[in-house]
Amino acid sequence: MLERWLKKRKSVPGETGREAETEKEPDIRIITRWEGTAADQKAFYTPGALVSVKNGRGQLYERFSEEMGDVSYCTLLLGDKPLFQFQGDEYYCPTCEKIIRSGYGLEQPGEFREERLNGENVPFEEALEGIKPLLGLLEDNCYVILDTQLYPTDGNGHLFWDVPVSEGGVPGSCLFYRGDGEWGNLRPHFTVATQSSAKLCENRVEYYRRHPGCRAVAYYMDGYMTALLDGHHKALAAALEGRAVNALVIVPCYPVSIHKNGIYEEYLWAGDMRFPCAQYGVQAVQTGRDRIPAEKMRALQALLAAREPRFPYDGKKLADAYPDARGIADLEAYTDTYGEITSMRLDRIIAQEYVCNPCEIQALMAALGALRHERLFEVADFFLERSTCLNLRFYHDTDTFRSIAEQLMSLPHSEETVQYMVELMVEYEDEYPSVGEAIKEWL
Fold this sequence. Notes:
- The protein is α+β, with helices and mostly antiparallel strands.
- It contains 16 helices and 17 strands.
- The chain has helices spanning 2-10, 124-130, 132-135, 202-210, 232-241, 277-280, 294-304, 315-319, 325-338, 343-350, 358-370, 376-385, 392-395, 398-409, 415-428, 433-442; strands at 27-34, 48-54, 60-65, 73-78, 81-87, 100-102, 141-150, 177-179, 182-183, 190-193, 216-222, 225-230, 245-252, 254-260, 263-270, 273-276, 291-292.
- The protein has a 7-stranded mixed β-sheet with strand order 1-2-7-13-11-12-10. It has a 5-stranded mixed β-sheet with strand order 6-5-4-3-17, covered by helices on one side. A 3-stranded antiparallel β-sheet has the order 14-15-16.
- Strand 4 (73-78) and strand 5 form a beta hairpin.
- Helix 15 runs antiparallel to helix 16.
- The N and C termini lie far apart (58 Å).
- The model is unreliable at 1-22, 90-99 and 104-113 (pLDDT under 50).
């Protein structure tokens, strides 16, 4: 269907300028690929590829609006259809949370129905080849394609298919400030729908519940946020199973000049990844310079604000199973410093084959809490009762004790958890009165 749509675009009479160039076949070239191994986890944390698009159709693109009062908007469009909208960066503030709108109510574009994406556990190289027709819809530029996983929520307590138009800024829509001078990463973690839930097909959802290895496709916007282009049924199937959805994420590259050794060097910047132009033989391109007139933007926003049919699932309950934007920042703070949380790592900690310092204990507990990790209680109990590196009566480390207690208090009020917290409060409330008061309130 995608190929038929592209052929149809070629035959449209009377087109000039950018449209006339669609007579040339899009040229999609893979510049470099990487595996996302532990050795290069910080820069290239997941498998991916840097690709260049030449003779692109220019039908899938971002545009900023002209100023509309105090704010501007960045809109992702397919042709003249708005798919997703972010508040712009008019204040040049990387941590200013943004308003988001999604293209609910729009027809699912036929050009995204690429069946090769529906194969389960297809190698990345084959999946990358499969989305080349979709990449041909982009503007001429370089893009990073990440083979990753996304949480099917907006990072703010809403399921991807049940996100209201925000009245104010949404956490996770910008560079996240962790506090104490620490910043989060520009990496995709969350996704928001671009098609109406009226298109929901229960049979497709059940199919993808049985085939969890299939990939969705999303377009990276900013912060932790993506617009879900294809794979809404895959994302819902993942949500019903309480897992992340496999996804190929398209990340546009932007030109950046960095001053080094007395000269300016040109780089491509995609999320938190940088590519020296000279090293890779590429040229930085500034896309999206055209502005959408304010009158047309108001018409687009009317489409984005279309009312949705009632969603047939408890979106809040499903979303609660996933980390929010704060939790993702906590998870990244641990993994960027100490590495991936694995069962083997936790086993070594509990066996005291690996000793954590207080800073790592605090980071680990926050990360386990963000993941709703099944071993959170076990690890917390170890640190409180058996760890030789954390003597609660000797060191009086209130910050570490509080970090553990807070994560325990994030667990459901089961009979076991309540009894445990009562005993913890009685044992340590004299040494840690402020934490004891917090436990009392929780009880």
